[in-house]
Design goal:
With 277 residues, this protein is of the alpha+beta class. It has 5 helices and 13 strands. Helix 1 packs across helix 4 and helix 4 packs parallel to helix 5.
Length: 277
């Protein structure tokens, strides 16, 4: 998931179609400025996330489905998801406490400037990787929801020497990105792998070509951009034995203004009272 958002931020570096394209250093500086601005804006929001993950049969039918309900909020620009329910059922008292402890740890961790700087450095490294591993071509203008957008085709650069798993994913991708012309924020990213991605020479795992990802963001009334839909689907083999087909889908909605500065932790759901005899 984090890779997809880094890809989206990479695409946000584009400039207006009627202006000269900036050099790589200009692109990087604009990206860093957009990231800092985005982090400040995200602090104001909390959203509800509904997730579905399906394991599929060979014919595409659903073999097994898992669902989750989460609260999503941000601490110094870092996304934190707080699990509230799993497969339509609230967490038990012990599960809720364990989850609350995890969330409290994350809030405390990313309230420390050094931890945030470390996370930002990791994100910057991945974004820089996408900029080097992908080619953004065929620039044109379209209208989306009444707003002008710049569209780019994207494709892995064959001259980029991929070493890590993330780099292999990047160079195996093809797709398109839509960037809001006025703000530079990514409206949508859709991409798929056009060749197999082998991990450990294929002995550990293989993600087959056709793995698809989609990210749709939505502009809020005050100008903040938040993810609205995240989904993907693919076919993989793990350790030479499993050959699962899967898909996942996230709907993010019910976003409202919120500030983590007003409380030190996020309260989980209260356990249900015992039944009356």
């Amino acid at each position: 998931m984090r890779l997809l958002f880094c890809l989206a931020f990479s695409a946000s570096l584009v400039m207006r179609a009627d202006a000269p394209l900036p050099n790589p250093q200009q692109l990087k500086q604009r990206l860093l400025a957009n990231l800092k601005k985005s982090e400040q804006e995200l602090e104001k929001y909390s959203c509800t996330v509904h997730s579905e993950t399906d394991e599929l049969n060979a014919d595409g039918g659903v073999r097994k489905r898992k669902t989750a309900e989460q609260e999503r909020f941000f601490v110094n620009g870092v996304e934190i998801d707080h699990l509230l329910a799993r497969d339509g059922k609230p967490l038990s008292a012990s599960e809720a406490k364990k989850e609350q402890d995890r969330v409290n740890y994350e809030v405390k961790k990313y309230s420390r400037p050094k931890e945030v700087e470390k996370r930002q450095a990791e994100d910057e490294k991945q974004i820089d990787m996408f900029l080097r591993a992908l080619k953004f071509t065929n620039e044109r203008r379209e209208s989306r929801d009444g707003r002008p957008a710049i569209v780019f085709d994207l494709e892995g650069d064959p001259s980029f020497h991929a070493r890590t798993i993330e780099e292999r994913f990047a160079v195996a991708m093809k797709g398109r990105v839509w960037v809001d012309e006025e703000t530079g924020n990514v409206d949508e990213v859709e991409a798929h792998t056009y060749r197999d991605i082998k991990i450990g020479g294929g002995l550990l795992a293989t993600v087959h070509k056709g793995f698809r990802v989609l990210l749709i963001q939505q502009r809020q009334p005050d100008g903040v951009w938040l993810a609205k839909v995240v989904e993907g689907a693919g076919d993989a083999r793990a350790a030479l034995f499993m050959h699962p087909r899967f898909r996942f889908h996230q709907d993010i909605g019910n976003c409202h203004l919120f500030s983590v500065e007003t409380r030190q932790s996020i309260k989980g759901p209260e356990p249900a009272p015992p039944p009356k005899l």
